[in-house]
Amino acid sequence: MTNPFSFLAERWHPTPQHVRRAALAALVMSVVIVVTGGAVRLTDSGLGCTTWPACTGSSVTPTPEMGVHGVIEFTNRMLTYVLSAAIGWFILAARCAKPWRRSLTKLGWAQFWLVFSNAVLGGITVLTDLNPYVVALHMVAALGLVWAAVLGWERSKEGDGAPHPLAAPGIQRFAQVLVASIGALVLVGTLVTGAGHHPGSAGTWRIPVDYDRLAQAHADLVFLAVGLTLAALLVFAAVKAPSAARARVRELFVLLLLQGTLGFVQYFTDAPEVMVGLHMLGAAVIWGAALRVPLALRTRAGIPAQSAAPSAELVA
């Protein structure tokens, strides 16, 4: 029996460029949802909808009495469907391409299930009155989605052959250590948020850890990440690493400097909402930029040639 995916795959044959565009759309939306989720917290709209999955006990959508906070929270929930549509486009494009990019399809489904699980986790944040630990886990899961989306986008530009290293094992491990340092930086950043300003709703309890000490630990990890990135710049140049890898390390270094400057200004100005929002955007972008570094240290066999089927056309 033919399933809907096979039925569509017999009639639609997107080009590799189309698949890459779909992968990029999924990646962009994965970053957008991080920013809009931050906007919910920064506007004190975390409990704009008082329950989940409906917005209130008697209404799926916000009521006029809930005001702007209900609209903001509900809009963020609706953007999850836009994100899901972008991922669905990627899954279908990867499935219908000729030949079938099975590895890309798996990455697309991984993104779908991450969105689904994080939507449930977002509901739990509401049902637990914005428990800061759950909110932090919600952010970590969102960055997990960014990870999967980055992999999907990068793999859409490669073939399906076995990976071939372009640098010595020591250089590859160094790149992985760099990614791990950025991951630790982001994780501690979620705890700083949970202990500090902008809980998402007035009166929400905070993580009972000294905010200044957490902020100092976060700053220490910033120095570590910047130092490792600077070292990577020098090492990659010395060993003549692939130009793409060197370019990505340069991009990461600039992003870290900008994010670090923003973070220090944010700390000493009592964390204004706009700066915190930009900082969250920066965290997602830096995480994605770090993930791309080790991916530039290997290559795969070229994308198979498009079959003779009509490209990117629906046929009757």
From TrEMBL:
The keyword Transcription does not apply. GO terms for cellular component: membrane. GO terms for molecular function: metal ion binding; oxidoreductase activity. Its main location: membrane. Pathway: Porphyrin-containing compound metabolism. GO terms for biological process: heme A biosynthetic process. Coiled coil: none annotated. InterPro entries: COX15/CtaA_fam, COX15/CtaA_HemeA_synthase. It is found in: Membrane. The chain crosses the membrane at residues 21-40, 78-97, 109-127, 133-153, 174-197, 217-239, 251-268, 274-293. Pfam families: COX15-CtaA. PANTHER family: HEME A SYNTHASE (PTHR35457:SF1). This is Cytochrome c oxidase assembly protein subunit 15.
